[in-house]
Amino acid sequence: MQTEEYLLEMNNVSKSFPGVQALKDVKINVRPGEVHALMGENGAGKSTLMKCLFGINKMDSGQIRLNGEPIVIDNPSQALRSGIAMVHQELEQVPQRNVMDNIWLGRYPRKGLLVDDKKMYEDTKKIINSFNMKIDPRTQINHLSVSMKQMADIVKAVSYNAKVIVLDEPTSSLTEKETEALFEIIRKLKSDGCGIIYISHKNDEVLAISDRVTVLRDGQWVATENICDIDSNKLIKLMVNRELGNRFPPKNKTIGETLIRIEGLTSVYEPKISDVSFEVRAGEILGIGGLVGAGRTELLESIFGLRTVESGAVYVDGKDIFKSRKHSKNAALTMVTEERRVTGIFPQMDIRWNTVSSSIQKNIGKLGLISMKKVEKNTQWAVKAMRIKTPNLKTLISTLSGGNQQKVLLGRCLLNEPRILLLDEPTRGIDVGAKYEIYQLMIELAKEGKAVVFVSSEMPELLGVADRILVMSNGRNAGIVDAEECTQEMIMTMAAKYL
Ligand SMILES: Nc1ncnc2c1ncn2[C@@H]1O[C@H](COP(=O)(O)OP(=O)(O)OP(=O)(O)O)[C@@H](O)[C@H]1O
Ligand SMILES: [Mg+2]
Fold it and tell me: What residue's CA is closest to ligand 1, atom 28?
C-alpha cells in the first residue's frame, strides 16, 4: 500500500454502542487537496466514524495514520493539535458569546494577564477576510443565521491550521447561494492542500464538489469511488442497495372542502410578512417555495401563533382561530419547526418521552396516571411508521443518528392526529430512502383528508410532492401555481418578484 500519498488513513475501524454495532471494519483515506465525500443512509455510521477520528468516540479497534504515521487520538483537543478539525452536524457553540470568543475559547491570545482582545479580533478578521465572508467577529452567536453559525465554525476549524477538516452535513440548512459560498471556501482549503471529508445527503452537491466518495451501509464500508466514474443513480444504489425507481410517490387525487383559510396575514417584525392570503383544502398538499429570508418560516409561525400578527385572520372550519383560544385548540393545527435539533428535542430523555411529549393526554390510563403500555404502543407506532432506526424504545434520543432524531420529532407531531400540518423543511438531513417515506407519509395524510403545508428549499421536492405551490417573495405572496403546470424556472422568477 502506498501510504505516503495519503494525508489521512483510517483502517479496520470498529465501534459498538450498547445494542448497536455502529461500525464494522470500516476504512477511509484522504489525499492532500482532496474533497472526500462520506455518504450513507441515516444511521449508516458516518458521524460515528468521524467522531472516532476526532477523539469523541473511542474506537473498539482500528488504526489511524496521519501523513503516514500511526497516531492515537484520545480527545478533541488532541485532534485539533494534530491538525484535525471537525464542524459538527449539531453545532456546539456558546450562543451568548460572540463569534471570536467562540473561536478562541480556551486559548485566548494574552497580553500579560489579560485577554488580547485586539489580536483576537484581528486574527479572526484575517481568516474571515481570506474567505470573503461577511461576519463581524463581535456579533453574538445567537444573532447569526444558521448558515452564518456554520461559517463561524469553519473559521474556527481554519484557525487551528487544520490539515484535515471534517464537515458533517454543512449544507443541510444552507440556501443554494450560501452553499456556493461554502464551496468557494472548500475550494480555497483544497488549494491550500487541506483534505476535506464532506458528509452530505445531497447527491448533486457531492457530485459537484468531491473528488472521491466512500459509501457506508449499516456500519460497513461498501465502496470508494472516483466521482468521475459515478453518477447519482449508482450512488443511490450503493447507499440503499436497491434501485430507487421514482423519487416521488403518486399524489392524492381527491381534494375536498377548504380546511384552512388565511386572509391578509401581516406581521411586521423582520423578516416581515405582508398581506398573505391563501387557502388549503382537505386532501391537499401546498408547498411553499421562495428564497431564504422571503418569510416562509415566518409565515408558518404566524399561522401557528408563534409570532405577533398585526392584522389578518386564520380561519379553520370557517372560524377565526386567533379570536378564540378554544378554536385554536380544536383547530388541530400542528407544526414541525425548521431548527428541530435546537427547538425540538429533549436530549436527556429516551425515545418514548420524546415521542409522546406533545400528546401526553392520549397516554393516560384508567387511574388517571400515565400508562406505560400506551406510551410504548404509541412510540412503537411512530418507530414503525417513520422507520426509526433504534436499538429499542428506551434509547436516549441524543444517541440516535441526526436523521433518526428528526423522524422521532415528525412522529411526535403525527401522534397529535392533526388535521392541518405545517412542516418546515420536513426532509432536511434525511437520506434518500427515508425522504421517499416521508413524502409517502405526507401523501397518505392528504388521502386521509388532512391539509398539509410544507416549506422546502428543494424545488424538485416542491414540484414532486405538492399539488399547488405558493411562492413567497420578500414577505409577500408572489403567486400560487399548480405543480403540474409549473417549472423550476417559474418558481425562481416568482421568487424574485418583489425583490
Ligand atoms: N453515543 C451513542 N450511543 C449509542 N448509540 C449511538 C451513539 N452514537 C451513535 N450511535 C448509533 O450508531 C449508529 C450510527 O449513527 P451515526 O450517527 O454515525 O449515523 P449517521 O450515518 O451519521 O446518520 P445521519 O445521516 O442520520 O446523521 C446509529 O444506529 C446510532 O443510533
Ligand atoms: Mg450523522
Answer: 43
Q: Which residue is closest in CA terms to ligand 1's atom 24?
A: 42
Q: Are 385 and 411 in contact (CB under 8 A)?
A: yes
Question: Which atom of ligand 1 is least distant from the CA of 395?
Answer: 4
Ligand nearest to the CA of 429: 1
Do the beta carbons of residue 276 and residue 456 sit within 8 Å?
no
Class of the 258-495 domain?
alpha beta
* 213 pocket-lining for ligand 1 (C-beta < 6 Å): no
Strands across the sheet containing 476-482: 333-336, 420-424, 451-455, 285-290, 468-473, 476-482
- C-alpha 418/C-alpha 328 separation (Å) is 12
Taking the CA of 41 as reference, the closest ligand is 1
Tell whether ligand 1 has an atom less than 6 A from the beta carbon of residue 214. Answer: no
Ligand 2 ion local residues (Cβ < 5 A): 47, 89, 402
Nearest of 315, 251, 309, 306 to residue 283 by alpha carbon:
251
Q: Mutate which of 23, 48, 51 to test ligand 1's pocket (most atoms within 8 Å of Cβ)?
A: 48
Distance of CA 62 to CAs 13, 28, 36, 75, Å?
4, 11, 20, 16
Mean pLDDT for the stretch of residues 242-258: 84
Mean pLDDT of 78-91: 88
How many Å apart are CA 144 and CA 299, to the nearest integer?
Answer: 20
Q: Decide: 22 in ligand 1 pocket, CB within 6 A.
A: yes
Cell numbers that stand for 370 in this block: 400515565
What 8-state DSSP symbol labels residue 346?
Answer: -
Map out the domains of the chain as residue ranges. 3-240, 258-495
Q: Is 43 in the pocket of ligand 1 (CB under 6 A)?
A: yes
Q: Which helix (H) or strand (E) is 385 found in, with range? A: helix 372-385
Question: Do 3-240 and 258-495 show the same overall fold?
Answer: yes
Mean pLDDT of 479-496: 93
Distance CA 431, CA 290 (A): 23
Instruction: Please give the CATH number for the structural domain made up of 3-240.
Output: 3.40.50.300
pLDDT tens-digit profile of 350-391?
A: 999 999 988 888 899 888 899 999 999 999 999 988 888 899
Instruction: State the distance from the centre of ligand 1 to the C-alpha of 215, rounded, in angstroms.
Output: 15
Atom of ligand 1 nearest to the CA of 49: 18
pTM beyond 0.85: no
Question: Counting Cβ atoms within 10 Å, is residue 420 exposed (0-12), middle (13-18) or buried (19+)?
Answer: buried
